[in-house]
Amino acid sequence: MFVTKNQKLSAELEQVKLELKLERQNKFATNQQKQADATPDPEPEKPKGKRGAPVGHPGWFRPIPTHHDWAVDVPAPRQCPHCQGPVDVLSGTESSHHLQEDIIDGVYRVVLYRHAACRGGQCDRLVEQPGKNEILLSRIGSFPRSKAAYLRNVIGIIGFETKLAERALRPLVVLRKITFGHRSETGASTMAKLMTVAETARRHGHRASDIYFELLTRPPDQVMKRLYADASTPAN
To answer: What residue spans define the domains of the chain?
Structure first.
């Protein structure tokens, strides 16, 4: 008799524990989880291919420079690189132009290479030779390409911009968890502006509290000059 009663009480206790667990899960579940629990599982869909750009959507390309810093006239090669024969210069034919972006002595430059029109004497193919520091058919010059290859493959700088963004956003994430977020778009916009000023001040060596004080007591244009100046620059 007592064994049967103990088994019944144990079964009821397990049922109560299960109901309590489900109640807690439902109480602290997000709206998305509640909707997922209430919605029946849909039928499995057939795997779809990778979604591409809509038909007629223009692709993204690096904008072509609208000016160049200097021009370089590249002569015709003495020997055809294809047939190893002589090269015939096409008189009266306009030379081909090649714009190449480069970084020379730490300064961004755009160089225009003008190639004389010529063909191989035996293969009759258009030929041209690269000018100084030129990479044929390349929009980017040799200096930035070599530096990028060194930074990526030798030093291993990959994804550093993502880490910087995550570190910059961390204070906002912590603040959101503490305050449970903003209740209006106005509050969110105000907080974004304040954090932008604070981060800009920090990167220029200023204290954010000093910049906030100056924004309340001085003309904004003067404060902007102070904000983007070096921390050692005295205030006007």
So the answer is: 70-154, 160-227
Regarding beta strands 118-120 and 87-89, do their DSSP bridges make them parallel or antiparallel, or are they unpaired?
antiparallel
Encoded tokens for 3: 């064994």
CA–CA gap between residue 127 and residue 181 (Å, rounded) = 64
User: Which pLDDT does position 121 carry in this prediction?
Assistant: 83
H-helix or E-strand spanning residue 70: strand 70-74
Task: Look at residues 109, 142, 111, 115 and name the one whose alpha carbon lies nearest to residue 128.
Answer: 115
Mean pLDDT of 202-209: 86
Contacts of 101 (CB under 8 A, 6+ apart): 65, 108, 109, 110, 139, 140, 141, 144
Burial 126-154 (b: 16+ CB within 10 A, else e): ebbbbbeebeeeeeebbbeeeeeeeeeee
Reduced DSSP (H G I as helix, E B as strand, rest coil) percent helix, strand, coil of the chain, to 5: 45, 15, 40
CB 130 within 8 A of CB 74: yes
Query: What is the C-alpha separation between 176 and 167, in angstroms, rounded?
Result: 15
What pLDDT, in 10s, does the model give residues 107-151?
Answer: 999 999 999 899 888 888 888 999 988 999 899 998 888 888 887
Identity of the residue numbered 8: K
Compute the distance between CA of residue 88 and CA of residue 118 in angstroms, rounded to an integer: 5
d(CA 189, CA 14): 50
Q: What percent of the chain stands above pLDDT 90?
A: 11
H-type alpha helices, the chain? 2-28, 31-38, 142-149, 160-179, 185-203, 208-217, 220-227
